[in-house]
């Protein structure tokens, strides 16, 4: 008799080799569900731990964040206000420094001017001596050269201090720099022109130390004598 095949063993072997059997599918499904449950549980635990962080809820944390944002905004506004105030104070200080420096320069110029005006009288005396004294011999010429050397040294010192002599001859009369002492009727010079400087004027930078005393030209036809002669001749002509 021939041996019968073991069908149960074959069935068991085939059953183990089937990957998608109902039992294996059930096992995999249970494992998947278990993993999902574990994941959800972990997330819940994590969320619960986060919500209890520092004993604060999400609403409390959001409120704290809003408070900090508001404080930051207030501090930023305060810093901006301090910056504007600093810029304003810096501008005011710069203007004060410039104004003080200008006032100091003006005061120094004023004091220097008062001192130099007193020295100008000495310069005038030297210039008069130079034009009026005529040395007659070698001894007088030596004396003349000596005091003219002193005069030159004095003039050079005034130039270094910023003093400049005026030279108004031929220029239009300007009351800012000139003071009219005489009028001369002339056809050779335009009306209002300075003919001669009687006493020299000086400036210190833009400041007038002393006005120049000048002789000013006037039109010759405006002479008072000419007016009187014309007035006396007119009736005689009319009578003729």
UniProtKB/TrEMBL annotation:
Start and end residues of each stretch annotated as Disordered: 1-34, 218-240
Main location as per UniProt: cytoplasm
An annotated Gene Ontology molecular function: protein-folding chaperone binding
Localisation: Cytoplasm
One GO BP annotation of this record: protein folding
Coiled coil: 58-92
GO CC, alphabetical: cytoplasm
Skewed-composition ranges (Polar residues): 16-32, 231-240
Keywords (A to Z) from UniProt: Chaperone, Coiled coil, Cytoplasm, Stress response
HAMAP family in UniProt: GrpE (MF_01151)
NCBIfam families xref list: PRK14143.1
Oligomeric form and interacting partners: Homodimer.
Protein name (database record): Protein GrpE
Lineage, uppermost ranks: Bacteria, Bacillati, Cyanobacteriota, Cyanophyceae, Oscillatoriophycideae
């Amino acid at each position: 008799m021939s041996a019968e095949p073991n069908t149960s063993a074959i069935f068991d072997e085939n059953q183990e080799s089937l990957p998608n059997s109902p039992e294996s599918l059930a096992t995999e499904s249970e494992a998947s569900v278990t993993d999902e449950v574990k994941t959800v549980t972990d997330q819940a635990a994590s969320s619960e731990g986060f919500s209890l962080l520092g004993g604060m809820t999400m609403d409390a944390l959001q409120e704290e964040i809003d408070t900090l944002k508001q404080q930051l905004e207030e501090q930023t506004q305060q810093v901006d206000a301090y910056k504007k105030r600093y810029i304003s104070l810096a501008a005011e200080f710069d203007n004060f420094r410039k104004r003080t420096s200008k006032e100091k320069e003006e005061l120094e110029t004023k004091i220097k001017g008062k001192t130099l005006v007193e020295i100008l009288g000495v310069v005038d005396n030297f210039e008069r001596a130079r034009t009026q004294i005529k040395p007659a011999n070698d001894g007088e010429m030596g004396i003349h050269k000596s005091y003219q050397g002193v005069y030159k040294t004095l003039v050079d010192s005034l130039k270094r201090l910023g003093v400049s002599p005026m030279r108004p001859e031929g220029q239009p009369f300007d009351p800012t720099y000139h003071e009219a002492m005489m009028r001369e009727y002339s056809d050779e010079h335009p009306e209002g022109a300075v003919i001669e400087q009687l006493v020299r004027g000086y400036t210190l930078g833009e400041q007038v130390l002393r006005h120049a005393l000048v002789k000013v030209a006037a039109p010759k036809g405006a002479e008072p004598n000419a007016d009187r002669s014309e007035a006396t001749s007119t009736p005689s002509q009319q009578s003729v």
